[in-house]
Batch of 4 targets.
Target 1
Amino acid sequence: MKDLVNEKAPWFIDLEEGKTINVDGQEISIVIWNMILTKRDLKLWVECKMKPHRNWKVTDAKTYFGITGTGQTLLDNYMTLFNHVMSLTGAGKGFRVIEGGKK
């Protein structure tokens, strides 16, 4: 797992600095928020062949998280990192599921 985590990648530096963002009234690490959104974006890119928005670039995600690969390999590498970080931080356990647009 050591070679999976690039300690010089921007996400790791942001994690060490403790940057947060307010999401639905709760403070969450900006790194965790970026990971959740990047998971969505990479799945759209790889599985649906669709860009999440017109300014999105896969190289931005690769650079920020320090991951490599193309297509399914990229998604697999990212998901390994994502699952590792989520299990270590316990992130995602406090989120409410919103069904039908109602809280």
Note: The chain is about 50% helix and 10% strand.
Target 2
Amino acid sequence: MKLFIISFFIYSNINALTCNKYVEKFLVNYQGDATVLDLTESQGQVTAALALLFPHTFVTLESSNQVYNTFENLHLINPIFLNKKASIEFLTYLVGCEQFDVILIGDLSFKDDWKNFIDIYVKLGEFLIFYLHDKL
């Protein structure tokens, strides 16, 4: 069974940190070493903030080398940066070879095929945490 946690906030550094507090509470109680996939499209900020606190394995998909530089500057060793777009095609490929304990998902309201993304996320992870705008 999947657990869906939905958090509403406006994308900004202050509110993102507040929202991360809820994710932190979830990860603190997670049994064992979790694998976390970050699809929030936050230039690695969510992953970096959480990776500083938890020894879990974090994977982030971003099509920007800025994310790699952020991880390197913070001397983070547990995040894995994949310079890929979170497309339907790439996520479908991941379903065939990976399974994540937790998936952090950004706002889907701008995607025409959001239902297809949800179908893939359900196959890809055990717990889905959505970061959404508070005004849809």
Note: The chain has a mean pLDDT of 78.
Target 3
Amino acid sequence: MEMNNKEELILRKCYVELFKHSTPSVDFNWLVETAPTNEFGQKEIDFMSYEIDPKKFDEIVETILTEAKLTKMKKKMFKTTILLGCSPKYSSNVVNSITTEIKK
């Protein structure tokens, strides 16, 4: 998804809030600043070391995207970008309970 400056700020705000509410809680800006850079000039953030409750994830993203007054289509594009990007993973206890329910 190609973004303009306003959209990049919205995306960054989502990441800041998601990592602030993750376990362990961390400052996303600090993560980016201190992350090593690979041979392609990309920051390598160990985002899989952080977990967030899916409900909290949805609440944070929905609040920020609604405040930004994005269309439904843009909201879906942002949510997909965030989920496929460097967001914290869903809490393992939630994933385990979903797996248990599926097995029943």
Note: The first strand starts at residue 51 and ends at 52.
Target 4
Amino acid sequence: MATAYLVQTAPSAAVPSAGDSAMSVALGAVEIGGTGIALAYLNARNPADGKAHHEIFGIPTDVAIGGGALGIGILLALFGSKYGMHFVRIGIGAFVESGIRMAFEKGVSDRDAENLKRLQPKTTGLRLVQAPMPQPAAAPSPAPVVGAATAMQKGTSQSVFQPVG
């Protein structure tokens, strides 16, 4: 005679089961979505210097909150608390927001790199040589005045220009 064993697993905090009430499912969605939205707003509103996200002690805030809330939720669930699932949902929301943020930043950097490649000139097998810039022609010197040179050579103080009339 075969013996049947019944294995009961603990219900997941994030996945609703058939026995969960509609209010419990709605609360889970609000906890996960609300955490993600709040952390996305925080990252956009108060980014760290030179970064696109908020940081606490050099760690992205969404990762820190996700790890902390998930750890607290697991500890509370181990000790039989009914509030453990709320912390687990908050941790899941924070990690989801962190993944979305990282994917967004990667997409923006890839797009910018692609645009940079598109803007650079295409290279061919030919080598470009820059021709020397043409120099402007020297301005012609004014024609010498014959009378002035002879008067200066003689050392006289006679004026070159004579009054008319």
Note: The longest helix spans residues 84-119.
